[in-house]
Specification:
Pfam families: HD_5. By secondary structure, this protein is mostly helical. The chain is about 65% helix and about 0% strand. The termini are far apart. The structure holds fe (ii) ion.
């Protein structure tokens, strides 16, 4: 029996991921191959959903700018970069008709979307050296007041680096165009971030991020970008 197109949409990217994990786990030079592995996963996101890929690239740039302003160590900056680039990888397991829907999602469609942090965690956790990244992928939709998902973590129970990705992610959602909404200006996004201090976000991190937004001359260029490029 032929598979339904929707089943193929889900199976093909997941097969690509499984092959990449198999190749990685057989490799003898694991450290060097880790970056190749991450790139392979990112390329899979790009092939399946260019919109998701561009979102993750911008989120990565914002997260690294905030991480730098928070004086993260080199090691944490690397984990943050990998996690920001892979935070939405679980969307590979979401049907296209929901992921690429040009209108606002219904409540039941949103419930399906809410599975993506756990789907992403399950993909990434099978790679030994990406376990810290998997935790961040799982927690990137948790909110400071405990109203997020999937585990309703609150305050400092949310991993520090995941809280950075949450702020970067939300800023990009606000300032990017969607078929059903115009992008918010940087000023409106800043006032939204202010409003959500200590409810959705860690307030101290928001203060630092707003300073970055007001002083970093590159922010507007990042907001406007809709093409892939290398991130240093
Ligand atoms: Fe997400």
């Amino acid at each position: 029996m032929f598979l339904e197109p929707i089943t193929l949409q889900l199976i093909l990217p997941l097969l690509a991921i499984l092959f990449a994990i198999y190749t990685y786990n057989k490799s003898k030079t694991k450290y060097d191959d880790l970056l190749h592995m991450v790139n392979c996963l990112i390329n899979t996101i790009e092939a399946k959903s260019p919109v998701t890929y561009m979102h993750t690239e911008r989120v990565c740039i914002y997260a690294l700018k905030l991480g730098k302003a928070l004086n993260l160590s080199k090691k944490d900056m690397l984990i943050l970069k990998e996690a920001a680039l892979l935070h939405d990888i679980g969307k590979l397991g979401i049907p296209d008709k929901i992921l690429e829907k040009p209108d606002r999602l219904t409540d039941s469609e949103f419930e399906v979307i809410k599975n993506h942090p756990r789907k992403g965690y399950n993909i990434i956790k099978s790679i030994e050296n990406l376990k810290p990244v998997a935790e961040l992928v799982l927690c990137h939709h948790e909110k400071y007041d405990g109203s997020g998902y999937p585990n309703k973590l609150s305050g400092d129970a949310i991993p520090y680096l995941a809280k950075i990705i949450t702020i970067a992610d939300s800023f990009d959602v606000m300032t990017s165009r969607r078929p059903y909404k115009d992008p918010s200006s940087i000023e409106i996004a800043i006032s939204e971030l202010e409003k959500c201090k200590w409810t959705q976000f860690d307030g101290n991190m928001v203060d630092v991020f707003i300073k970055v937004l007001k002083t970093d001359k590159d922010i507007q260029n990042v907001m406007n970008r809709s093409f892939p490029s290398n991130i240093d």
